[in-house]
């Protein structure tokens, strides 16, 4: 059976992490994260860090950018602050 995990940030799915022989492959489900689509990571936590870095960079450089606004469906203002999470398809949050 394949291990597949949803990678989420601010309650939205950034993509999926699929277990591979060499770690996890990230598949983007949002254009904001397409630049890491297909990249292999040794750990899911490394995907989490990349997703967070891309998002924070886009939000700080281009707070009104359509991709950032579209990600939220509004203007990108975050209250309260939420972090990226990793969830398996059983819905349980993982500590990684």
- Average residue pLDDT: 75
In terms of structural class, how would the helical and strand content be classed? alpha+beta
Strand tally: 5
Strand order of the largest sheet: 4-3-2-1-5
Strand percentage: 25-35%
Q: What form results from the Cα inertia axes?
A: elongated
What is the N-to-C order of secondary-structure elements (H for helix, E for strand)?
Answer: EEEEHHE
Structural features, described:
By secondary structure, the protein is α+β, with helices and mostly antiparallel strands. The protein has one domain (4-88). 26% of the residues lie in helices and 29% in strands. It has 2 helices and 5 strands; from the N terminus they run ββββααβ. It has helices at residues 44-61, 66-72, and strands at 4-9, 12-20, 23-28, 40-41, 84-88. The chain has a 5-stranded antiparallel β-sheet with strand order 4-3-2-1-5, with helices on one face. Strand 2 (12-20) and strand 3 form a beta hairpin. The longest helix is centred in the middle third of the chain and has 18 residues, at 44-61. The protein is elongated.
Q: Which properties best describe this structure?
A:
96 residues, five-stranded antiparallel β-sheet, elongated
